[in-house]
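Hi all, posting the design record for the shared folder.

TITLE: backbone redesign
STEP: 1 of 1
STRUCTURE INPUT:
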């Protein structure tokens, strides 16, 4: 019996050590090497890990509920034929393709549409419902 107790203790320690080793803090890289815990996600258009909240084009939630709001981001390719949108609670970006004539462009994929409103910025719609829009800029 004296030999069994230490053997069981060693097995328990090994099991716990193995389980802890599988869930290392900060070891959350995705298939592209982006660390979600540091706020990174992969952008197909930029072909690199980005932080959505650091992007130049950010859109505010159109109809926030509760005390907090969310933000979406948009990245364009060089000739603006593609737009990659990052929406909260959706893994990765969604690539939208440009349609329409110069001055009246929109980017679409399925039910999502991104409209260029000129000086008013951009509006992201699902079907015809506004999800996100450029922030209102006030002079001051």
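Okay, here is what came back for every position:
SEQUENCE:
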């Amino acid at each position: 019996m004296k030999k069994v107790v230490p053997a069981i203790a060693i097995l328990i320690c090994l099991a716990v050590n193995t389980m802890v080793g599988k869930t290392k803090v900060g070891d959350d890289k995705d298939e592209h090497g982006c660390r979600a815990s540091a706020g990174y996600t992969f952008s197909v258009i930029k072909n690199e890990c980005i932080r959505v909240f650091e992007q130049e084009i950010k859109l505010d939630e159109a109809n926030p509920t509760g005390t907090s709001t969310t933000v979406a981001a948009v990245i364009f390719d060089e000739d603006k034929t593609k737009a990659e949108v990052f929406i909260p609670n959706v893994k990765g970006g969604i690539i939208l393709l440009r349609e329409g004539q110069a001055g009246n462009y929109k980017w679409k994929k399925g039910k999502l549409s991104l409209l260029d409103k000129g000086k008013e910025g951009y509006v992201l719609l699902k079907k015809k419902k506004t999800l996100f829009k450029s922030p209102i800029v006030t002079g001051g």
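COMMENT: The radius of gyration is 23 Å.
Let me know if anyone wants the other runs.
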